[in-house]
Each structure stands twice: as C-alpha cells, then as structure tokens.
TrEMBL record:
Origin species: Alicyclobacillus tolerans
Pathway: Carbohydrate biosynthesis; gluconeogenesis
UniProt lineage: Bacteria, Bacillati, Bacillota, Bacilli, Bacillales
Protein name per the record: Phosphoenolpyruvate synthase
Reactions catalysed: pyruvate + ATP + H2O = phosphoenolpyruvate + AMP + phosphate + 2 H(+)
UniProt KW keywords: ATP-binding, Kinase, Magnesium, Metal-binding, Nucleotide-binding, Pyruvate, Transferase
Length: 287
C-alpha cells in the first residue's frame, strides 16, 4: 500500500477509508476534469507509523516520501496548504465543518512538518469530541489522512449552496468576499450574497460590507481592512457568479443531493476547493 499518493490517484489507490471523504471526493472530481488545485494525500495510517517507536525505519522512509512530494508541489505553486481529511468528516449527516485544523501558505520544510503534526493532533481536540458526541458519532478507529494542495492566492472566495440552506428554496445561494475563504467560513465578514432562481434564471444581488480580507503573507495569512471602494461594490462579476451557479448545479446533479461548494477565483480562474452534502438541517453543534 502506498502511503503518499497524488490527489488525482488517491480515490483509486487508497479508497475512501484510506484517504477520507474529503480527499476521496476531490480526487474523483479531478478525474472528471474539475479544476481542483493539484496535490497529494498522506494516508491515515502514516500518523500511526510515524509515532510508533517500533516502526522507526518505516517512518523515516515515509518522511522522505512526503518531503519529495512536498518539494515537487512547491516547484509548481510556491506555497501549499495542509487540510484534514478525517474518516469522520464530511459525512452525510454531519460535516464536521471547522472542527479539524487547516494550515495555509506553507513555504518551507519545517513549517510543512509542523502543519502535519498540527492537523494530525486536531482529531483529539475537545471541540471535535464534543461535536461528535452531539451528533452521536463514535470517533473510535477514525483515522486522519491529510491533503496537501498547491496554494491558491485567491482574489475572491466563497461558499455556494445548491438550495437555500434554511428555507430549502430551490435557488442557488452564493456568499463571496475578497481574499481567502477563511474570512467567510470563520464569520469574520458580511459577504456579498447572490440568489439565483433556477427556474427563471433571475439573479439577485445584495452587497455585503466585506469588512476585511484574509491574504497571504511571507508565511501564513493575515487579515487586512478592505478599502471603502471595495466595501461599496460587488466583489465578483455577474459572469463569475453565473459560472459558480452552473458549477454548483452540475455538482448537485452528479451527487444527486443538495451540496455546498467552496470555491476561489484567482486571476479569473475558478477553483473548486470542496464539495459536501448540505447537512444544516441534520447536524447539531456542541453546547
């Protein structure tokens, strides 16, 4: 069994149990031609092997394999992200959104291995266990595969829903703001909101205040204030919104269930970052 596998081949070589739901779905989407940032997957059992004193020689080989894959990706992108793909994540009834760790804009080997450890350790976070308990999910036997992807230096990012997540209206809802998507998913900004009526093709837009944006710096990310002009105008064009809506509708048809989609634009190119079933009516948050 391979422990470090290209993202394109991860679904076939590792299966869902070996690479987790998130990596499995991204891998299948890449195979179908969707524009997903390239990368590789570190299988879930790598963490167990690296932390086992009895497997020291194997762990050294795994670290070499991960470093070689990291260096190849760095040559293409100049920076990478490390994302969780836990086998208890992106489930049909519980997304675990925001529970595990993601580390962005990694530019050297030391930061890369620190990010791996950080994401691996997040499976034991108290908030993760509380969320799992609230949704009646056992984490026993769960593994933490990781996705390492080329970093998209996003001009704008957002989340799209193939149906209204609250009213279940049959319209595509798009929330989008400047910079990286963390500003939206962390609730730091009031994004621009678009509602696309599937039956009529009408598009409605509401300008959000977009108070700040998350951008790349020399290492990691930082938050900077948006300008007055940025706050007063829509951050993407009508053509770009319709491109996102078409992508979201296509994915809903492929998955045969309502989905939410994370995306970014860089220099006019639309990147698909994640797809998962809409679970807002099913899952519970820990209190």
């Amino acid at each position: 069994m391979e422990w470090v596998v290209s993202l394109t081949e991860a679904a076939d070589q590792l299966g869902k149990e070996g690479c987790g739901s998130k990596a499995f779905e991204l891998s299948r989407l890449m195979q179908r031609g969707y524009c997903v940032p390239d990368g590789f997957v570190v299988a879930g059992k790598v963490h167990e092997s690296i932390t086992s004193a009895e497997a020291e020689s194997k762990a050294a080989d795994m670290q070499v394999a991960m470093l070689q894959a990291f260096n190849r990706l760095m040559e293409r992108y100049g920076a990478v992200s490390v994302r969780s793909s836990c086998t208890a994540e992106d489930l049909s009834h519980a997304s675990f959104a925001g529970q595990y760790e993601t580390v962005l804009n990694i530019r050297n080997q030391e930061a890369f291995f620190q990010a791996l450890r950080h994401c691996w350790n997040s499976i034991s976070y108290a908030r993760v266990n509380a969320y799992a308990k609230a949704n009646h999910i056992s984490l026993h036997g769960s593994q933490m595969p990781l996705i390492i992807q080329g970093m998209v230096n996003a001009d704008t990012s957002g989340v799209a829903f193939s149906i209204h997540p609250v009213t279940h209206e049959n319209s595509v809802i798009v929330n989008v703001s400047y910079g990286l998507g963390e500003a939206i998913v962390s609730g730091l900004v009031t994004p621009d909101t678009f509602l696309y009526e599937k039956t009529t093709g009408k598009l409605h837009a509401e300008i959000g205040s977009k108070e700040l944006k998350c951008v790349l710096q020399d290492q990691g990310v930082c938050e900077i204030d948006t300008t007055w002009l940025e706050q007063q105008r829509l951050c993407i064009t009508e053509e770009e919104v319709l491109e996102v809506c078409k992508l979201t509708e296509n994915l809903e048809k492929e998955y045969q269930t309502p989905v939410d989609v994370e995306f970014s634009f860089q220099e006019g190119q639309l990147y698909l970052l994640q797809v998962r079933p809409i679970t807002t009516t099913k899952e519970k948050t820990a209190v």
